[in-house]
From TrEMBL, chain A:
GO molecular function: ATP binding; ATP hydrolysis activity
PROSITE patterns, per the entry: ABC_TRANSPORTER_1, ABC_TRANSPORTER_2
Protein species of origin: Falsiroseomonas stagni DSM 19981
Entry similarity comment: Belongs to the ABC transporter superfamily.
Keyword check for Transport: yes
Keywords annotated in UniProt: ATP-binding, Nucleotide-binding, Transport
Residue ranges constituting the ABC transporter domain according to the UniProt record: 7-240
UniProt protein name: Osmoprotectant transport system ATP-binding protein
GO biological process, one term: quaternary ammonium group transport
InterPro entries hit by this protein: AAA+_ATPase, ABC_transporter-like_ATP-bd, ABC_transporter-like_CS, P-loop_NTPase
Pfam families: ABC_tran
TrEMBL record, chain B:
Protein origin, superkingdom: Bacteria
Protein's membrane topology: Multi-pass membrane protein
Keyword tags: Membrane, Transmembrane, Transmembrane helix, Transport
Species for this entry: Falsiroseomonas stagni DSM 19981
GO biological process: glycine betaine transport; transmembrane transport
Protein name: Osmoprotectant transport system permease protein
Family as reported in the entry's similarity comment: Belongs to the binding-protein-dependent transport system permease family.
Subcellular location: Cell membrane
Cellular compartments per GO CC: plasma membrane
Transmembrane segments: 37-53, 60-79, 91-109, 116-134, 154-177, 198-219, 225-245, 284-310, 330-349
Annotated ABC transmembrane type-1 domain residues: 154-349
């Protein structure tokens, strides 16, 4: 049996007036996949995401979610079953933080104590002060508002989560924490996550599946390492490479793949088992050694092995 | 400061403070405040001066000014009691220009330093009245003589204003919703409702009578429902036509003012259109709508006055009766309650609006 993609976008074109926001886009996202959408501003990332909960209706083509054509599903029920953290956040200005977070559970008819417990859990998960629950959104900083937006998307524990630039307004430290938190949520719950981001590092680090959009078309679609590999399309390498696509590529390849049967010299620096080739290169550069060892492995990692990744 | 000076000047200069006449139809003879009250004039003068004194905190200044206004009124009442004591019961004492200038300037001073002290003025006036201090003033004589008619006029007035407001809401709410959903339709409505405002109110009231008469002739069954071409119907219809614009405009503005991101979020969370309206659009529209509602309430109380011309009764009828008889006191008897009702409605609505503007 072939696993059904949980999100299937088949030959979709979206036209707004005279401009095509998406042109003949086909994308399959499997259950439990973490899929990142990247691309320049206006390339259609948000539009593609909004097809999934039917906030955007295709001009041509079909969108299936959990195997069902979304055009045949009642929109409110579909949307309640999908978490959505919006690019513009869009908290309800007249409702408290707790009420905002509890929106979908309330629509689903949960009882008040259950909603209150869930809100408390989510505030803790997103590292928001529990006392913040009674505040109105205008009393939040931009980063806090974004985190409340993510909590609201997670509230009813949806199996599909859409996140449109969810970490845009938070400081780098919190951003890293939230990134780690998102990775943890994904690992623990097995949710299918669709994430729009302008940060290529974030996309490559978090996602198991990266989709590059350009002018409404899918330019590339695959595993992170393949998209920055030397044979990938120049536009994609440039977008994702951060000026040093070679190094970024190495950072996505495991050092274990370059193990050499020769043993490491006595006293050589040791690499962790999950180290990347970029990590290995960094340690080599620092230590000045010729070869490095790896925990739990007999062989060694050598400069020529790292640089031979291409072969 | 300047207000207090004006009030004090009105009390000290030889302006007619009170007019004393042998009966209500003959013109009176002017008496200045100094002549009427002697050195007692010093009481309101000092209080009003204190009211304007910058060193005093706002509440104290407002309180002094309020007491000053009450003292002016008390002075007029006492002078009337005194001057009319040896005259026939038909003799009248009415307010003169000096009184009005002092009262208006004094009230403005109160409003400036602490408007809520207006309440103290009302209480003070009520106490003076209850103690008989104002009994011989023509306005009070007139009010006592017509107490029942006046009371029923006030209720009629409020009922007419309430009915017009309800009717205007009944029209404006669906129109605002339709215009919100179809902006082009909304533009047409805006133009039509603004067009009504261009018609002078008196003309609209008068115009409705022949129109309604024609309608009733065409559909006599309407008469059986108690509808008539004169009376409450044209008054309510015409007033409602004017109120529709502020109500419609504030509703439309409120609906349009909702943050589009919040509305989109509501949609994305899986709210139905009805829920989005009830949970997001209306609550966000409320503060804007409250402003329009306040304007409409105050306008309703004022406009319904013209109902007096088309047989609808209410305080307008009292005012126009006074006008036709050149009876100033009768005019005032109708006009003062209208003013007070409008002020009270405005104050209450403003307080409600402020509460809405900053929830929880
Ligand atoms: N509701 C709409 N009406 C008209 N045009 C739209 C609408 N939504 C999007 N567009 C247009 O479609 C194109 C794609 O927009 P989209 O929001 O998907 O871009 P994006 O990749 O998310 O950009 P960004 O990174 O700036 O958020 C843009 O040219 C945009 O102007
Ligand atoms: Mg976008």
């Amino acid at each position: 049996m072939i696993a059904q993609p949980v999100i299937a976008i088949e030959g979709v074109t979206v036209r707004f007036g005279t401009t095509d926001a998406l042109r003949d886009v086909t994308l399959h996202v499997k259950a439990g996949e973490f899929c990142a959408l990247v691309g320049p501003s206006g390339s259609g990332k948000s539009t593609l995401m909004r097809l999934v909960n039917r906030l955007v209706v295709p001009s041509a083509g079909q969108v299936r979610v959990r195997g069902q054509d979304v055009a045949t599903l009642p929109a409110p029920a579909l949307r309640r079953s999908i978490g959505y953290a919006m690019q513009s956040v869009g908290l309800f200005p007249h409702r408290t933080v707790a009420e905002n977070i509890g929106t979908v559970p309330r629509l689903l008819g949960w009882d008040a104590p259950r909603i209150a417990r869930r809100v408390e859990e989510l505030l803790a998960l997103l590292r928001l002060d529990p006392a913040m629950g009674v505040r109105l959104p205008r009393a939040l900083s931009g980063g806090q508002a974004q985190r409340v937006g993510i909590a609201r998307a997670l509230a009813a524990d949806p199996d599909i989560l859409l996140m449109d630039e969810p970490f845009g307004a938070v400081d780098p430290i919190t951003r890293r924490e939230l990134r780690a938190e998102t990775r943890r949520i994904h690992a623990e719950t097995g949710k299918t996550i669709l994430l729009v981001t302008h940060d290529p590092e974030e996309a490559l680090e978090l996602a198991s599946h990266v989709v590059v959009l350009r002018d409404g078309r899918i330019e590339a679609d695959g595993a992170p390492a393949d998209l920055v590999a030397p044979d990938a399309a120049p536009f994609v390498r440039e977008l994702l490479g951060g000026g040093q696509p070679g190094l970024r590529w190495l950072s996505l390849l495991p050092a274990r793949g370059a193990l050499d049967p020769r043993p490491a010299p006595v006293g050589a620096a040791m690499l962790a088992r999950n180290a990347s080739l970029a990590d290995a290169l960094s340690v080599l550069a620092e230590s000045g050694d010729e070869a490095l060892g790896m925990e739990g492995e007999k062989g060694s990692v050598r400069a020529e092995g790292i640089l031979g990744a291409r072969r | 400061m300047i207000l207090a000076l004006i009030a004090i000047a009105a009390l000290l200069l030889p302006l007619p403070f009170l007019g004393v006449a042998p009966n209500r139809l003959l013109p009176g003879e002017g008496v200045s405040a100094l002549d009427a009250a002697g050195f007692w004039v010093a009481v309101p003068v000092v209080l009003l001066a204190l009211g304007a004194w910058r060193r005093l905190p706002g509440w104290a200044g407002a309180a002094a000014a309020a007491l000053g206004v009450v003292a002016v009124l008390g002075l007029a009442g006492a002078a009337a009691n005194d001057r009319l004591a040896d005259l026939a019961p038909a003799a009248r004492a009415s307010f003169g220009a000096g009184f009005w200038v002092a009262i208006v300037a004094g009230l403005s001073l109160v409003a400036m330093r602490g408007a809520w002290m207006g309440l103290a003025v009302a209480v003070g006036a009520a106490v003076l009245w209850a103690m008989g201090g104002l009994d011989r003033l023509s306005l009070v004589v007139e009010a006592t003589a017509r107490a029942d008619a006046l009371q029923s006029a006030i209720w009629t007035h409020l009922a007419l204003a309430g009915a017009a407001l309800a009717l205007a809401l009944l029209v404006a709410v669906p129109l605002a919703w339709a215009g919100f959903r179809r902006p082009r339709l909304g533009a047409v409505m805006g133009a039509a409702l603004s067009g009504v405002q261009v018609v002078p109110a008196i003309a609209l009231f008068a115009l409705l009578i022949p129109l309604l008469a024609a309608l009733l002739r065409a559909v006599p069954a309407l008469r059986d429902l108690g509808l008539g071409a004169v009376g409450w119907l044209p008054a309510v219809l015409a007033t409602a036509a004017y109120l529709a614009l502020p109500l419609w405009r504030s509703l439309s503005g409120g609906l349009a003012s909702a943050d589009p991101a919040a509305v989109q979020a509501a949609e994305a969370m899986g709210m139905t259109e009805g829920r989005i309206l009830a949970e997001v659009r209306l609550p966000l529209a409320l503060p804007v709508f409250a402003g329009g509602l306040r304007v409409a309430v105050v306008q309703a109380i004022g406009l319904v006055t013209l109902g007096g011309l088309v047989g609808a009764g209410g305080l307008g009828a009292v005012v126009f009766e006074g006008l036709s008889q050149f009876a100033t006191d009768l005019m005032l008897l109708g006009a003062l309650p209208i003013l007070l009702l409008a002020l009270a409605a405005d104050t209450l609505a403003r307080a409600a609006e402020n509460r809405l503007a900053r929830p929880a």
